[in-house]
Amino acid sequence: MQSGAPSGALGADPTVLIGTIVNPAGLILAKTVPQVRVPAFASPGLGASPTWHAFAADQVGIAFTDAIGVVGDQRIRVDLEAMHMLDATLAWAPGEFFDQAGVPVPQCARGTLRRVVDGLGRTGLRALVGHELEFMLTGPEGQQLPSHLWAQYGVAGVLEHEAFIREVLAECHAAGIGVDQLHPEYGRSQFELSIEPRDPIAAADQLVLTRLVLGRVARRHGLRISFSPKPFADGVGCGAHQHISLMAGDVPIFTGGPGPTGLTTEGEYAIAGLVDAMVDLQGVLSGSVVSGLRMLPGQWAGAFACWGVENREAAVRLVRAGPANPRGANVEVKAIDPSANVYFATAAILGAAALGIAQELPLPPETTVDPGTLTDAQLAEADIRPLSAEQSAVVDTMDGSAVLRAILGDPAVDALVAVRRYEVTHFPDHTADTLTNRFRLAWSV
């Protein structure tokens, strides 16, 4: 993949600035300042309680831990170099957490991704990341929209919501978001928006900005957007797939080599690292209490820890280079949904790939069939591990993962475990209908 240059209005002079962070529960939280306070928002930053890292997705609870409580104060500093204009007077910028002495807070997701990217750079590796975001249009209270004309990927969905689609594409362009495509998806009133690749931090920022644009446009049309992994119990799920390219210097490692499908040796190691760590990574990629409703065979959710060329049921899908893919070979991680914190998810994926390279992990055999069609004995023989649809087990695995703690650090993992365990504890035996109704708009903006 090649990176597109951001076209946001850097250096503009907004009347109002929204600064956002994404917390461990995947919630986008914000502070807003007038023009005169923009410099202070950048440095020394605005105060925020440590509990921002513990706000839960049920929009009520706080997942207190020994390290996160009511005592203390932190500072959110916006990155003005990453600022983009939402309209002529309203700007947005991503924020990071620091303590009052200016030291990065270890629970900060954007800061964690920055540390992982810096670590990649010290090994001579460079990454590009592209995002695919699935979402569902709903009524203002989350109710299902009439969809009598809907067909999977059908043009009727485009025409039914033509004004909405036109505005989204226009506002994304104005905000500097590189949209590759926007199309109706399999589910009723479901769409997917693909965003061009950029460096990992800019790509994660771009995804957050895209969600803000989608939310603003939807409101103008009397709609809301559900970013739930499973908006309706009887419908399909929503993913948030990541495509990653890795380069050693300027040389891509997923193409041009002697290995299977042109993989270089380092490319084989990187994919092996992702497959090997996928069960541990699941709590970061799809760890919400709703995620298990999507993480099932037959949902194209990547519900098996394996890899395959263009295999949409594998958690790790290799996309070949060639005339039909001018951006070059890349790896798509499918086991991600929109309830994930995009910064933590990207950090976990890149960290796992880097560990595979550092440890020279052998590439397992390619999965060339739908793993959901294999028997338990065949899965075991092929060393293919199903990902869990039981979220309490997913959280326990995340908590005990030495690999994940090595990548993200103990404070970040502890915060992720706390908010996800809160969800499991407070919604232990709810039906699919109850969970989808309760959390349909939990990650909306």
How does the SSE layout of this entry go?
Layout: E1 16-22, E2 28-34, H1 38-42, E3 46-48, E4 74-78, E5 84-85, E6 90-98, H2 109-122, E7 125-138, H3 155-160, H4 162-174, E8 179-184, E9 190-198, H5 200-220, E10 224-226, E11 242-248, E12 251-252, H6 265-285, E13 304-309, E14 314-319, E15 330-333, H7 342-359, H8 376-381, E16 385-386, H9 391-399, H10 402-408, H11 410-426, H12 432-439
Parallel strand pairs: 1-6, 13-14
Antiparallel strand pairs: 1-2, 3-4, 4-6, 5-6, 7-9, 7-10, 7-11, 8-9, 11-12, 11-15, 13-16, 14-15
Helix pairs in contact: 2-7, 4-5, 5-7, 6-7, 6-9, 7-10, 9-11, 10-11
Organism: Gordonia mangrovi
Protein name: Glutamine synthetase
GO molecular function: glutamine synthetase activity
User: How many helices in DSSP terms?
Assistant: 12
- Radius of gyration (CA) equals 21 Å
Topology as H/E string?
EEHEEEEHEHHEEHEEEHEEEHHEHHHH
- Count of DSSP strands: 16
What ranges have pLDDT less than 50 throughout 5 or more consecutive residues? 1-10
Gross CATH architecture of the largest domain: 2-Layer Sandwich
- Classified in CATH, the superfamily of the largest domain is Glutamine synthetase/guanido kinase, catalytic domain
Instruction: Output the structural class.
Output: alpha+beta
General form: globular
Q: What is the CATH topology descriptor of the largest domain?
A: Creatine Kinase, Chain A, domain 2
